[in-house]
Amino acid sequence: MSTPRPSARAKAKSPKVGFVSLGCPKALVDSERILTQLRAEGYETVPSYDAADVVVVNTCGFIDSAVEESLDAIGEAMAENGKVIVTGCMGTGPKGQMVKERFPDLLSISGPQDYGSVMKAVHAAVPPAHDPFFDLLPPQGIKLTPRHYAYLKISEGCNHKCSFCIIPSMRGRLNSRPVNEVLVEAEKLAKAGVKELLVISQDTSAYGVDRKYAGGEWRGKPYQTSLLDLCKGLGELGLWTRLHYVYPYPHVDEIIPLMAEGRILPYLDIPFQHASRSVLKAMKRPAAAEDTLERLAAWRRICPDLTVRSTFIVGFPGETEKDFEELLSWLKEAQLDRVGCFEYSPVEGATANALPGAVPDEVKRERHARFMELQQKISRAKLRKKIGDDIEVLVDGLDEESGVMVGRSKADAPEIDGKVYLSTDQPLRAGQIVTARVIQASEYDLNAEVL
Fold first, then answer.
1. How far apart are CA 416 and CA 413, in angstroms?
2. 334 with 307: CB under 8 angstroms?
3. Strands 307-314 and 267-269, how do they pair?
4. CA separation for the pair 205, 252 (Å, rounded)
5. Helices (DSSP H) in 267-320: which residue ranges?
6. Is 162 annotated as a binding residue?
7. 60 is in an annotated binding site
8. Mainly localized where (predicted)?
9. Which residues, in sequence order, are CB contacts of 336 under 8 Å at separation 6+?
10. Rounded (10°) CA dihedral 34, 36, 38, 41
């Protein structure tokens, strides 16, 4: 059903906002919430600076490249429009002060999740229209992802003090959303046609700790604000539910049977970061002493189809060749399905900047290359074992580069994992789930024939 179109008169009265959204999926959810409020108040979003009455830039400031991208976006908006509101991770602390000094004529600057400050600044720049046509919002709000999948943010902030990370200083301590609130949002998304939910936070495993697992009611049943009860509730919706940013705490063991039963996807995104105890200690990583290899083996015994993805940092201050070899040895034994690797780079405000034993850039590059070479061999071997298997694929649409319809298996998250290139004579649409037989595999992707 199409949304009613406002009249020409209503359009003329509608204040127009340009919007630039940068950063991670958590920042994307912040952008979606701001856009939903803007639309509810009668604002119209436009794709060009010259058509906008005011521009909002939602920034990212986690690493140097993100900082530069955010500064470039702010500078471009100031040059092209001049009326700019800045929010997000570049809006607080030393980075916020830097932005104020570089762009003294900004209308407003605020930190992440500060939706009230953004709306107050928009109101001051151009009053809301409150046009009745724009009050007819879809129940799930405004989404920046394709219609068939959506990010579901279950908490803000983080209680950890990892030495390489400044997220807690930007987004605050852990603040879990009540479980019934999350489940109501998920149900609205399901009714709107979403087929896949990507559960995100800074530490998904810690969900509910800050609320002491206080509960709520959904569909007439009591639920605790805990990871287990959240997954049980999401499992009732019949969607693909994918868990991201899961730390390998012991209570994660309770989730694995739900995966084996097909209630949520057999997929865990776990930020291991390293395997050397000395490096993990320097990183101040939680659960550093856990025997992760033993835990992985136990999970796979319960759920053989489990896909595990992770990210790692090489070249962290003090990382020796022995530490790196320990990481490679761990990787060979862990046999992870999806892996990303980054060369360590200092982040302004991170305590790791003061650590001794800086690793030369050429050594970082060499270790990164060796790490990825090993993981490519592991990934290629694991994907080749899938040749001949029949798998479910969620269709994403036409791949512009190859001209082939592509989708993702249950082992593939959007944007970060591999793709399944589909061969078929039948028409396919985005959001459709099909069964396909794997006929070919590369290091990261699959080719499959739709059955």
1. 6
2. no
3. parallel
4. 7
5. 277-283, 292-302
6. yes
7. yes
8. cytoplasm
9. 308, 309, 310, 375, 378
10. -140
Distances (CA, A) of 158 to 64, 208, 267, 347, 450: 21, 12, 22, 17, 42
**DSSP 8-state assignment for residue 1:** -
In angstroms, the CA 446 to CA 451 distance is 15
Phi, psi dihedrals of residue 300, rounded to the nearest 5°? -70, -30
Phi then psi for 77, rounded to 5 degrees? -65, -40
Question: What's the one-letter identity of residue 327?
Answer: L
The whole-angstrom separation of Cα 80 and Cα 306 is: 49
| Residue 231 annotated as lining a ligand binding site | no
Phi, psi of 185 (to 5 degrees): -60, -45
pLDDT tens digits for the chain (451 residues)? 333 333 333 344 688 999 999 888 878 888 888 888 888 788 888 888 988 999 999 998 777 788 889 999 999 999 999 999 999 888 888 888 888 989 999 999 988 888 888 888 898 888 876 544 334 444 555 566 788 999 999 998 888 888 888 777 777 889 999 999 999 999 999 988 899 999 999 999 999 999 999 988 999 999 999 999 999 999 999 999 999 999 988 899 999 999 999 999 999 999 999 999 999 999 998 755 558 999 999 999 999 999 999 999 999 999 999 999 999 999 999 999 999 999 998 888 888 888 999 999 999 999 999 999 999 999 999 999 999 999 999 999 988 888 899 999 999 999 899 999 999 988 899 999 999 999 999 999 999 999 9
Q: What is the DSSP string of 42-111?
A: T-EEESSSTT-SEEEEEE--SSHHHHHHHHHHHHHHHHHTS-EEEEEGGGSHHHHHHHHHH-TT-SEE--
Contact partners, residue 381, CB within 8 Å, separation at least 6: none
Helix (H/G/I), strand (E/B), else coil: 127: coil
Let me know: does 291 contact 333? Beta carbons within 8 Å. no
Residue ranges of domains in the chain, CATH in brackets: 16-125 (3.40.50.12160), 149-385 (3.80.30.20), 387-450 (2.40.50.140)
- Helix axis angle, 321-334 to 292-302, nearest 10°: 10
Q: How far apart are CA 295 and CA 301, in angstroms?
A: 10
Under 8 Å between Cβ of 87 and 74? no
Position 220, amino acid: G
End-to-end CA distance of the chain: 30
